[in-house]
Design brief:
This protein is α/β, with parallel strands linked by helices. The chain is built from 20 helices and 18 strands. The structure holds pyridoxal-5'-phosphate (PLP).
Length: 463
C-alpha cells in the first residue's frame, strides 16, 4: 500500500511544470497568486490520492491539462468580485444587494473625485485645514433644522459613538419594547454595554408610559439620557402604547438629561406621498426636542452607506472629540457620494433623482405600463408572461410590515429559472410565488430594463 501511494505521488506534476501551462502563463495575474493556486490544487490531489490508496481504490493522477483546468477554476472563484445585480425582488432596499442604489448625481460626484485628490479636509479659501466634510454637515443642518451634524461609517457606529460620548459610566433609560436587535447581531443592550453606559429598562414589551421614564429618572439621579429606538424592522400591534417623542423631549429637558433617538431610517422628507406611511422625518425628531438623532445614509435617505448624527451642538461636539470618532470616521468616497445625494434634496429634486424615492413614488399606472411593456417585448421573442398585481416593501430594516402596490411580470419556470437568472450576467434576483417567477416592475432601475429582458431570454433558453 505504501508502495502504491509512493508510486502515485511520484507521478504528480511538479509546480513549475503546471505553471508553464500556456493558459496559466497567459493569465493577467501576479505570478505568486497563480503559484499559490497551483500549490493548493496539488495539495488537494495529494489528499485525494492518499484517501484512494487508503480505501483500496486505484489512485489515478489526472493529466496536466486537467490539473491546469482545476487551477483556472480555483482562480476564477478567487476573483469573483461582487457582481452587478438587477433587483427584481420587490424589495427596494435589499440589504444583501447593497441597500440604496446611488443617484446619477452621487455616482458622478464620486467619479469626479475618486481617482485624484479632493478638498475633503482643506479650506481652499484660506489654505488651512478645515472640518472634515464640512459641506455635508452644513447641508444636513439645513435639511433637518439641527444645530450640528457629524457623519460616521454607519448608523451602528453612530449609536455607539453617541452613547460613548454622552453616557459612558452613567445610566441610560430604555423602554423594554425597544431593546431590539437591528440585524447582523447589533443588539441595543450589547451596544449599550460596549459604550460603557448602564442600561436601565423601563415599562413592558408592549406598553411604556412617560411616568415610567420619570420614575426611572427619580430612581437614577445620575442618569445621562433617555434612549428611544425606532421600531423600523418590526411592528407591534394591539394593546401597545409609547409616549409621543415630544413628551419625552419635554421630560428630558425638565430633568436635564439628553434624549437620544436611534431613528435607523433617515427620512429627510415626508414619505407619505409614496404610500409608505408612518416613517418619522429627521426634521420632526429634531423639532420634538431630541438631543441627538442617529440614522443611516443608505436606507430611506437613498445615499451611500454611512451613519449620520444630527442634534444639539454640545452633544455633536462631544461626539466629534471622542477618540472613537476617528476610528469610526466615514471614508472619502461615501462622503462625496453623500454630498451628491444631499444636493438632490437641496435642489428639491430628491423624488426625481434618488432611485429609492423615485421607485417608491412612481405612479402605479406607470409601473403597470412597464410590466405590460416587458410582457409585449418578451412575447415578441416567444416568451409568454403574465402581468400580476404585487406588493413592494421598503426593506433594509425600514417600514416593516408595510407595503405599497406594484405590478410584476410572472413567468413559468419555478426555481430552475430563478437559479438561471441568478447565475446570468448581469445576475437578476427575483422571487417566486406559486411556482412562477415574479419580476417586480417597481424595483428594477430604468437603465436596467434592456439588460433584464436580455437576461430573461438567455436564462429561459433551453440548455
Ligand atoms: C438599520 C438600523 C441601524 C443600523 O444602521 P446601519 O447603518 O446598518 O449600521 C440602527 N438602528 C436602527 C433603529 C436601524 O433601523
Amino acid at each position: 500500500m505504501a508502495d502504491a501511494l509512493h508510486h502515485a505521488l511520484a507521478r504528480m506534476p511538479k509546480v513549475d511544470r503546471l505553471l508553464g501551462d500556456a493558459r496559466l502563463a497567459a493569465l493577467p495575474l501576479q505570478r505568486s497568486i497563480v503559484r499559490r493556486a497551483v500549490q493548493l490544487e496539488l495539495e488537494r490531489l495529494r489528499e485525494a490520492l492518499r484517501s484512494d490508496v487508503a480505501a483500496g481504490r486505484p489512485a489515478s493522477v489526472p493529466d496536466d491539462a486537467t490539473m491546469a483546468a482545476r487551477v483556472l477554476a480555483r482562480l476564477a472563484r478567487w476573483s469573483s468580485a461582487p457582481q452587478p445585480v438587477i433587483n427584481a425582488t420587490g424589495v427596494l432596499l435589499h440589504t444583501n444587494l447593497g441597500r440604496a442604489p446611488l443617484s446619477a448625481r452621487a455616482a458622478a460626484a464620486v467619479n469626479r473625485t475618486m481617482s485624484g485628490s479632493c478638498a475633503i479636509e482643506l479650506d481652499l479659501e484660506t489654505g488651512k485645514r478645515g472640518r472634515r466634510g464640512a459641506f455635508v454637515e452644513d447641508a444636513l443642518c439645513r435639511l433637518t433644522g439641527a444645530e450640528a451634524a457629524l457623519v460616521v461609517n454607519n448608523c451602528a457606529a453612530a449609536v455607539l459613538l453617541v452613547l460613548s460620548a454622552s453616557a459612558r459610566g452613567r445610566e441610560v433609560i430604555v423602554s423594554r419594547g425597544e431593546l431590539i436587535e437591528i440585524g447582523g447581531g447589533f443588539r441595543v443592550p450589547e451596544i449599550m454595554a460596549e459604550s460603557g453606559a448602564e442600561l436601565v429598562e423601563v415599562g413592558t414589551t408592549n406598553k411604556t408610559r412617560a411616568e415610567d421614564y420619570a420614575r426611572a429618572l427619580d430612581a437614577h439621579p445620575s442618569a445621562a439620557a433617555i434612549l428611544r429606538v425606532h421600531q423600523g424592522n418590526f411592528r407591534q400591534i394591539g394593546f401597545v402604547e409609547r409616549p409621543p417623542l415630544a413628551e419625552l423631549g419635554a421630560l428630558a429637558r425638565e430633568r436635564g438629561v439628553a434624549l437620544l433617538k436611534d431613528l435607523g431610517g433617515g427620512a429627510l422628507l415626508e414619505l407619505g406621498a409614496t404610500g409608505f406611511r408612518g416613517e418619522p422625518t429627521v426634521e420632526a425628531c429634531v423639532a420634538s426636542g431630541c438631543t441627538a438623532i442617529t440614522f443611516s445614509g443608505d436606507k430611506v435617505m437613498g445615499g451611500p452607506q454611512c451613519g449620520v448624527i444630527v442634534g444639539e451642538r454640545g452633544a455633536i461636539e462631544r461626539a466629534r472629540r471622542h477618540p472613537l470618532a476617528r476610528a469610526l470616521r466615514v471614508g472619502r468616497l461615501p462622503m462625496v457620494a453623500l454630498e451628491g445625494t444631499l444636493e438632490s434634496y437641496l435642489r428639491g429634486a430628491a423624488f426625481e433623482e434618488l432611485p429609492v424615492l423615485a421607485q417608491a413614488s412612481a405612479p402605479i399606472a406607470a409601473v403597470e405600463a412597464r410590466a405590460i411593456a416587458w410582457r409585449e417585448r418578451l412575447a415578441a421573442l416567444g416568451l409568454v408572461g403574465e402581468v400580476r398585481p404585487s406588493e413592494v416593501e421598503m426593506g433594509g430594516g425600514a417600514l416593516a410590515g408595510r407595503s405599497i402596490p406594484s405590478f410584476a411580470l410572472a413567468l413559468a419556470g419555478g426555481d430552475a429559472l430563478l437559479a438561471a437568472l441568478r447565475r446570468g450576467d448581469p445576475a437578476v434576483v427575483a422571487r417566486s410565488a406559486d411556482g412562477a417567477v415574479l419580476l417586480d416592475a417597481r424595483t428594477v432601475l430604468p437603465g436596467d430594463e434592456d439588460a433584464l429582458l436580455a437576461a430573461v431570454v438567455s436564462a429561459a433558453a433551453p440548455g
